[in-house]
Amino acid sequence: xxxxxxxxxxxxxxxxxxxxxxxxxxxxxxxxxxxxxxxxxxxxxxxxxxxxxxxxxxxxxxxxxxxxxxxxxxxxxxxxxxxxxxxxxxxxxxxxxxxxxxxxxxxxxxxxxxxxxxxxxxxxxxxxxxxxxxxxxxxxxxxxxxxxxxxxxxxxxxxxxxxxxxxxxxxxxxxxxxxxxxxxxxxxxxxxxxxxxxxxxxxxxxxxxxxxxxxxxxxxxxxxxxxxxxxxxxxxxxxxxxxxxxxxxxxxxxxxxxxxxxxxxxxxxxxxxx
Length: 274
What we know:
Largest sheet: 9 strands, mixed
Distance between the termini: 32 Å
Number of domains: 1
Shape: globular
Strand order of the largest sheet: 1-9-8-7-6-4-5-3-2
């Protein structure tokens, strides 16, 4: 039998993708704020490194563990040629996934510029385009992780990154010694390969998660990939695991009937056994 093994989970058909429409900026902020409040999260803006970042945190018991969900790239571009003025995601899907997590301490961490911070003096639009994975971004996000862990008095952290947030999670994990687990969802684990697939220029000024893959190979990992994902296809997760030097693909979970953004929120509990 081949050592290559994929786990495929059958789930319900995906719902209509929320970003098929373009809600106003204010409605995006309001949707996240309202959802977080109704699910016991507290919103705050924290200064970390060069950036101010939005977080939603739910702390129930300071017990040594925290799960931190890292947002994707959001609306970084409004078209192939035009950069967005505000990268806040159209819908708070990642925040919704965080809300389903039953652990006592859960946090959601937004990316630079999201949730009304695009006009902040310390955040240029380059940080949600070419420099989205730059040293200054990763250093800031890493410091934010430390601040969130301190709030929960947590010595063990699990990072959950969606899409581009998966690249951020990998780059952070490679810098720390307190990461107990890493989960990626439709993870852009090889940005150069993904950009090549979509015939766009490689990122300039960003770090490459592929270069630290081997460094994090001993961290327990799960890489969820939508079988219908045309944005970040299965080959990306396979290339990353191969780069780690792992001989099988048991950490990759291929989820049937799910695309890049459709199907995750409806099935997150079942996928994780919550």
